[in-house]
Design goal:
Blueprint lengths: L2 H39 L7 H20 L1 H8 L8 E11 L19 E12 L2 E14 H7 L3 H11 L6
The structure holds zinc ion (ZN).
Length: 170
């Protein structure tokens, strides 16, 4: 086992442990919110301060659990604007550099892609901007020609205009 494998394994293990700890904290916190509220609603205990303190403490546990959990934290990192409710689609653009053993084919023209663009799309259901459910995700590769022809950037559009409008001297 090479040192980098060991580091990867350690990372994977710590991810799982953090996730476990996160879910435990969320679960404990959730119980700590639900149980005192139910008890209070049933009229057990006359002092509302005690359940209130427990609920506050439990909410802190939930927040800590979410923060510690790598998967949930990644979701929070991907959050959209607070007003996003329902289905929302995001596309990430990444540059594909030439690499040996690349097997991607351009979705537009079908040629083997050596250099170009990789678009990863993700359609998610969002509540207040936080993705709670992933409907679909996938990746599409585009060759250099299709990637630049598809979405003309400001620069290339300006270049094209310059080319089509011949300069006239007055
Ligand atoms: Zn293409």
């Amino acid at each position: 086992m090479s040192p980098s494998d060991t580091v990867e394994l350690a990372d994977a293990v710590s991810d799982v442990l953090y996730a476990l700890a996160g879910w435990l904290l969320v679960g404990l916190g959730g119980l700590g919110v639900v149980v005192p509220v139910l008890a209070f609603l049933r009229g057990a205990g006359s002092n509302p301060l005690v359940p209130a303190v427990i609920v506050l403490f439990s909410l802190c546990l939930v927040a800590l659990g979410v923060f510690v959990n790598p998967r949930l934290r990644r979701r929070l990192d991907r959050r959209r604007s607070l007003g996003t409710f329902g289905r929302s689609r995001v596309v990430e653009h990444r540059v594909l550099r030439s690499e040996p053993h690349r097997t991607d084919r351009c979705v537009d023209c079908g040629t083997q892609v050596s250099e170009g663009e990789l678009r990863r799309y993700r359609e998610e259901f969002c509540l207040a901007g936080v993705p709670v459910y992933t409907h679909s995700e996938g990746r599409n590769a585009y060759c250099l020609d299709c990637a630049t022809a598809d979405v003309p950037s400001e620069e290339t559009a300006a270049d094209r205009r310059e080319r089509t409008e011949p300069l006239t001297e007055s």
